[in-house]
Description:
The protein is 40% helix and 9% strand. By secondary structure, it is α/β, with parallel strands linked by helices. The radius of gyration is 20 Å and the shape is globular. Bound molecules: thiamine diphosphate (TPP) and magnesium ion (MG). Magnesium ion binds next to strand 4.
Amino acid sequence: xxxxxxxxxxxxxxxxxxxxxxxxxxxxxxxxxxxxxxxxxxxxxxxxxxxxxxxxxxxxxxxxxxxxxxxxxxxxxxxxxxxxxxxxxxxxxxxxxxxxxxxxxxxxxxxxxxxxxxxxxxxxxxxxxxxxxxxxxxxxxxxxxxxxxxxxxxxxxxxxxxxxxxxxxxxxxxxxxxxxxxxxxxxxxxxxxxxxxxxxxxxxxxxxxxxxxxxxxxxxxxxxxxxxxxxxxxxxxxxxxxxxxxxxxxxxxxxxxxxxxxxxxxxxxxxxxxxxxxxxxxxxxxxxxxxxxxxxxxxxxxxxxxxxxxxxxxxxxxxxxxxxxxxxxxxxxxxxxxxxxxxxxxx
Length: 347
Ligand SMILES: Cc1ncc(C[n+]2csc(CCOP(=O)(O)OP(=O)(O)O)c2C)c(N)n1
Ligand SMILES: [Mg+2]
């Protein structure tokens, strides 16, 4: 009996797309590093970093239909958001809180990604609240499909809702409620849990009594898969399968990407108080960007000259974005309440 080898979806990716994925990872990393520097210079107030998570996020972004599917990210999703159209300038403008900044005109906390054109739906700081919202959107997609309602005339293909969060946030009631709803109604919904082993200082074994977040999928009647989150193409492959399942009406998926943040939780955290330097150094050796860069080099897709060019372009773009964001004006005082409260009814 012969077994037909199943080709990984990533094997279909063109060299151009692979290089585009690499570029998104690199651009996100350089932007992220710059935000840390600006914070330490006292120029910005806050940054929540995605360093170490780029493999999980870029793999996920490229598997969905960007700009058509709905995305409910969390604060660590810089590389995901950059892959969906947020630019380094957009992000740095938000860290400075400058006038016209993309998410709120300078009012929202940085890292609360929100871009209408990219279908990135604005989130809350309260962890896991995005999960029932994404499940609700997935319900609306299914309902509209079944009842023939059209929300966007140019979109005729199936759509889905993707949401992300950390493993610690799966202890929240909202996670269970959203997952249950998605399972009961077999919605076009994907929950990507980026398991980096810590919720600020709390290790994962203090968060749940089972070894894997994906083990919980069965309780919601949905498929659960685990993947090495630092292997970008492996994430793309499992995400692509989840996307097909959603589009085909075969229900939701819980994807658990095992990863690590090699930097503190946020600019306000000191991770030396809860984890050893040896552990952090060990994980740095598994860096998702270095790993993908090695793959592209081994395959002859990325030459040393091209790599040099990518590095220089990323630096130049982030330098220009930094200068422009610093030079940009602050919001006008009159804008203080716009977009915060509904306009008062005239008496
Ligand atoms: C309901 C709620 N509780 C606590 C917090 C404070 N808080 C912000 S991020 C975070 C840790 C979340 O950890 P995890 O879900 O593992 O995501 P990670 O930051 O590790 O990516 C906590 C406790 C919050 N924002 N919302
Ligand atoms: Mg975590």
